[in-house]
Amino acid sequence: MKSKLEEAREIINRVDSQMAELFIERMKAAEMVSEHKREFGLPIYDPAREEAVITKNSALINDSVIKEYYVEYIKNLMSISRSYQQRMQSGLKVAYSGVEGAFAHIAAGKIFPDSNRISYRDFKSAYNSVVNGEADIAVLPIENSYAGEVGQTIDLIFSGSLYINGIYELGIHQNLLGVADATVEDIRKVVSHPQALGQCHDYIKLRGFDIEESDNTAVAAKKVAEAKDKSLGAIASVETAEIYGLKILEANINKSGENTTRFAVLSRAEAESPALTSSVLMFTVKNEAGSLANAISIIGKYGYNMTALRSRPLKKHSWQYYFYIEIDGITDTENGKNMIAELSKVCDKLKIVGTFSPHAEI
Question: Which of 20, 192, 282, 341: CA 20 to 30 A from 97?
Answer without folding.
Answer: 282
